[in-house]
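Moderator note: this is an archived Q&A kept for reference. The question asked for a predicted structure of one protein chain; the sequence and the answer are reproduced below.
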Amino acid sequence: MRYTAKKIGTLLLTLVLVSLFVFLAFSLLSGDAATRMLGTEATPERLAALRAELELDKPLPVRYVDWISNLLRGDMGTSYQYRLPVAQLVAERLRPSLTMTVMAFALIVLLSIPVGVVTAKYAGGWLDRTVTVLGQLLMSVPPFFTGILFTYIFGLILRLFVPGSFPAWEDGAAAYLGYLFFPALAIALPRVAMTVRLLRGCILEEAQKDYVRTSMARGRSRGDILYRHVLKNTLVPLVTFLAMTVAELVAGGVIIEQVFSIPGLGRLLISGISNRDAPVVQAVVTLVAFWVVVCNLAGDLLGRRIDPRLRNGEGGDA
């Protein structure tokens, strides 16, 4: 309980620091929002009225406290660009981003774990060498370039989807998920290669330990030892890495959403930065930071749940 409370305290402190950094950065670097919004129609009277409406006439510390207080109540402010509540804009664009993230993570798990186990089981063979070369290639190619290739091959040549024409959920789940499959695959492929490499290394390292040699001396098969013991002991680093992967998928989706014209959080963030829409940028970045910290915390706690040695070690230190 003390360990969990300490981790939650670290999470809250991290979120406060991130929110403060984002607020200060956009408040100091984005310029006067009222002047940009009025443009050539700006007069001293209209500027003063608009600054008062946007609460830009208040001191910076007061504005930060008001913003963080409203955020804790679910009020993310009003967009300068759209003149709509930021919470509404985020809610409208959350579904495609979240769906793409879930699909990408599912692809990572379904592809990397079987491939990682097989390559470790037959380490040094032709399959292992082929997967290693392919993995190096996938890790060296950025997801946005893979997305461009997918758009050209599967969209323009094979016509499996219409590039730039994102279907709404109301148009059918098959079309909606089919369109998101290709950007999800583009994000997932480098992470699949990384997960395969991690899992293969962990299995081979675990296979050199004394308990494995003892089990083999007793006549147990390699496959039985691998699936019943070795894989269980490689779960902790794998779970930790997958938790970090889930956190990074959201950030990696920002560029992919631009490539595939997906109206998600990434496009909303890019639009907010381009138009210096501070409430939108502050809300989206804070939400992404919250997602990253929570995923890392969940991975840490789950790893301790899986491996009792971690819990016992922490208890001894306490």
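Archived answer notes: Confidence is low (pLDDT under 50) at residues 314-318.
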